[in-house]
TrEMBL record:
Pfam families: Prenyltransf. InterPro entries: UPP_synth-like, UPP_synth-like_CS, UPP_synth-like_sf. The gene is uppS. Catalyzes the condensation of isopentenyl diphosphate (IPP) with allylic pyrophosphates generating different type of terpenoids. The active site is at D10, N58 (proton acceptor). Belongs to the UPP synthase family. GO terms for molecular function: transferase activity. Substrate binds at residues 11-15, 23, 27, 55-57, 59, 61, 175, 181-183. PANTHER family: DEHYDRODOLICHYL DIPHOSPHATE SYNTHASE 2, DEHYDRODOLICHYL DIPHOSPHATE SYNTHASE FAMILY MEMBER. This is Isoprenyl transferase.
Length: 237
């Protein structure tokens, strides 16, 4: 079972377009999927779940769509906070640095993180206003400010300056809709992740789809750059 699963929630716009609906309808429909996947991950024993909700590049979308997303996320946070807390889920938001984030949304997110901060059944990280390159740049700046000599910088010391540095590396990334891109998502943490690209669009993605992705992960042999030994003890070619 993967310890840390991340989902790139892709396909909301195409889901809406196929139904001749505005893009916002796809975002609204995705709420059901989010809750279904959270419940499926917790029930399966996944300890860490990360969801890519809004990137630093998504600010380039039309103002009406961005405004809708801000209102939608605030409503979802308020609506589902009691459920998440009752399930023992610790909630975190990765990003949240852009001044364009509405103050009301920022307060509700801070309240959710405080409410669930002591929970340990599962850690849910929502990447919102997130960019992997931005996180790496901020970690480098933090290292410089701390006065660490260049010769003393290691992967471990660098990772300690990333946001939520206790987060384990991602084992499995699920990107829906069949698209095969990283999209600047948790670049450091996904370095050795396995990827699965189901063709189903995110609003139609459900617990059985999630479990199939877990099954696909369990069929793979993770080598981390090494070569597994053959049956006679010698490395395979």
């Amino acid at each position: 079972m993967p310890r840390h699963v991340a989902c790139v929630m892709d396909g909301n716009g195409r889901w809406a377009a196929r139904r001749s609906l505005p893009r916002t309808a796809g975002h609204r429909a995705a709420e059901t999927t989010v809750i279904d996947v959270i419940e499926a991950a917790r029930s399966a024993g996944v300890g860490w779940l990360s969801l890519f909700a809004f990137s630093t590049e998504n600010w380039r979308r039309p103002d009406t769509e961005v405004e809708f997303l801000m209102h939608l996320v605030r409503r979802v946070v308020r609506k589902h906070a009691p459920l998440l807390h009752a399930r023992g889920i610790r909630c975190r938001f990765l990003g949240m640095t852009d001044p364009r984030i509405p103050p009301g949304l920022a307060r509700d997110i801070a309240d959710l993180m405080t409410l669930t901060g002591r929970n340990r059944q599962m850690t849910l990280t929502v990447a919102f206003d997130h960019g992997g390159r931005k996180d790496i740049v901020e970690a480098a700046r933090s290292l410089i400010r701390s006065g660490v000599p260049a010769g003393s910088v290691t992967e471990e010391s660098f990772a300690a300056h990333l946001p939520f540095s206790d987060t384990p590396d991602v084992d499995l990334v699920i990107r829906t809709s069949g698209e095969q891109r990283i999209s600047n998502f948790m670049l450091w943490q996904v370095a050795y992740a396995e990827w699965v690209f189901p063709s189903v669009l995110w609003p139609d993605f459900r617990a059985p789809d999630f479990l199939r992705c877990l099954h696909a992960y369990r069929q793979r042999e993770r080598r981390f750059g090494a070569v597994p030994p053959s049956r006679n003890g010698e490395p395979e070619s």
